[in-house]
Amino acid sequence: MRIHHLNCGSLCPHGRRLVNGDGGLLETGHVICHCLAIEAGDGLVLVDTGFGIEDARDPRRLGPAFSIMRPRPRLETTAAAQLESLGFAAGDVSHIVTTHLDPDHTGGLPDFPQAEVHVLAPELDAALSPRIDERLRYREVHWRHRPRWVTHAGSGGDDWFGFESVRILPGLDAEVLLVPLAGHSRGHTGVAISTGSGWLLHCGDAYFNHGELSPSPSCPPLLRFFQGLMAADRKARRHNLERLRELSARHGGEVDLICSHDPRELDRAEGRPAIVDTPAG
Question: Is the domain covering 2-271 a CATH 3.60.15.10 domain?
Answer without folding.
Answer: yes
